[in-house]
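Per your request, structure below.
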């Protein structure tokens, strides 16, 4: 194993004391969804055979003690029967997208140690929510999907992991896709340093950097070439960050875990769904624990 990866996994997956309780392992909040993208926040939180009707929280599979989901108000009632392990909050909407409501956001943020935001949010007010989180809480952030374009110029004060693919990173930086592909490491390094965050630049070999150290993730395969895979990555990182409070280690480990799940699933590359990937998380973490305790 690469030393950066080994160090990150050792830091995150040390043996837990038998006397520990859920409050010791963080509270993760996922904010997402809009009229056109109702599935994305569910992918980030959940993963069983039927992602819509039977949910088991990805953030908790990754190690967080508790979790919650904040969705548009029109989704709330339908989710009550399905979400089994997470609290549910809802925000009022405009044109099918979440509007910023400080009272509701503050309620949802109570005791939150990491918030994942942006999955399927469309034109929701993710920028206002992220700025409020940075200014009024100590919560860490995983910023993904639609929130990336709205928060691209923020200073994240060392408290965020951003997870763009090449196209999203091009939109964030104004750098062409071709230029990024030629030298993804330098561009990711510069952005992470300028904005005081961790960047996971998603590609076949994803670049993970905090602006100083670089890790290249080599796990994964074509089974991840499905909509929802990026949402799962955000959920895994959010779960890890909720208890570790270490953005770089969580991003490194999350990237490895997602890719390794794709490698060990027995579902073929044509039929593999995000829920098939999530189902492998416990197996991969068991594998990690076994390996690091023998290093």
């Amino acid at each position: 194993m690469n030393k950066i990866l080994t160090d990150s996994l050792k830091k995150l997956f040390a043996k837990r004391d038998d006397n520990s309780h859920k409050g010791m392992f963080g509270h993760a909040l996922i904010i997402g969804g809009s009229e056109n993208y109702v599935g994305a926040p569910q992918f980030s939180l959940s993963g069983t055979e039927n992602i819509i009707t039977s949910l088991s929280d990805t953030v908790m599979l990754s190690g967080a003690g508790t979790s919650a989901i904040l969705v548009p108000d029109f989704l709330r009632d339908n989710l009550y029967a399905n979400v089994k392990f997470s609290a549910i909050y809802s925000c009022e909407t405009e044109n099918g997208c979440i509007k910023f409501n400080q009272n509701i956001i503050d309620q949802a943020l109570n005791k939150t140690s990491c918030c994942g935001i942006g999955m399927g949010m469309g034109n929701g007010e993710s920028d206002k929510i992220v700025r409020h989180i940075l200014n009024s809480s100590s919560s860490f952030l995983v910023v993904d999907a639609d929130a990336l374009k709205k928060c691209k110029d923020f200073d994240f004060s060392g408290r965020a992991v951003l997870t763009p693919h090449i196209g999203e990173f091009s939109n964030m930086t104004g750098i062409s896709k071709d230029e990024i592909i030629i030298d993804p490491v330098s561009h990711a390094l510069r952005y992470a340093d300028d904005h005081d965050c961790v960047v996971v630049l998603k590609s076949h070999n994803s670049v993970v950097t905090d602006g100083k150290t670089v890790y290249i993730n080599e796990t994964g395969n074509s089974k991840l070439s499905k909509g929802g895979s990026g949402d799962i990555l955000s959920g895994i990182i959010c779960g890890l960050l909720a208890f570790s409070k270490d953005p770089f280690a969580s991003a490194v480990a999350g990237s490895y875990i997602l890719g390794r799940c794709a490698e060990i699933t027995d579902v073929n590359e044509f039929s593999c769904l995000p829920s098939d990937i999530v189902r492998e998380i416990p197996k991969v973490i068991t594998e990690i624990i076994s390996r690091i305790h023998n290093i």
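The first strand starts at residue 27 and ends at 31.

Regards,
D.
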